[in-house]
Design a protein that fits this description.
Layout: H1 19-31, E1 39-42, H2 45-57, E2 62-65, H3 67-74, H4 83-101, H5 111-126
Parallel strand pairs: 1-2
Helix pairs in contact: 1-2, 4-5
């Protein structure tokens, strides 16, 4: 989650195991975020549809992007040579974002949480909350 100043406020990773559990959990998660202004989703399919349906029902704008799109805006081509490089680069950049934002440092940072942090940063740029990446935050 990001603030309107473009800085990371908090982050976490959850695995619901099944689409049915996710479907039951999404309303409660969105209830915890009454000031949510945007929902940025990577990819599509039935899991993204669950989030989009509930956000749309609440009048929250949704932006869906492909992994290739946010990676192109956040990582250099050399950092995306293969899956291992991309994940390592995403982890390093997410840690820089955490530091720059003054958010709590992780004891462990899963790759899905690191990528979510970068998807969110792409999103704050997309919606105009941050004009450009802060100096030194790309690769």
């Amino acid at each position: 989650m990001y603030g309107t100043d473009g800085r990371l406020v908090c982050y976490r990773s959850r695995n619901f195991g099944t689409a049915a559990r996710l479907r039951r959990a999404v309303p409660g998660i969105l209830d915890e975020l009454p000031d949510l202004a945007w929902l940025i989703l990577e990819g599509g399919g039935p899991l993204a549809d669950i989030w989009q349906r509930e956000a749309t029902r609440r009048g929250i704008p949704v932006c869906r992007i492909a992994a290739e799109e946010w990676r192109a805006g956040m990582l250099y081509p050399r950092q995306q040579r293969d899956r291992a490089h991309a994940k390592h680069s995403a982890d390093e950049l997410a840690r820089q974002v955490i530091e720059w934002s003054g958010a709590a440092r992780p004891t462990a940072l899963r790759h899905d949480a690191a990528e979510a942090i970068l998807i969110g940063l792409w999103g704050v740029r997309h919606v105009g909350w941050l004009a450009a990446l802060p100096p030194g935050l790309r690769g």
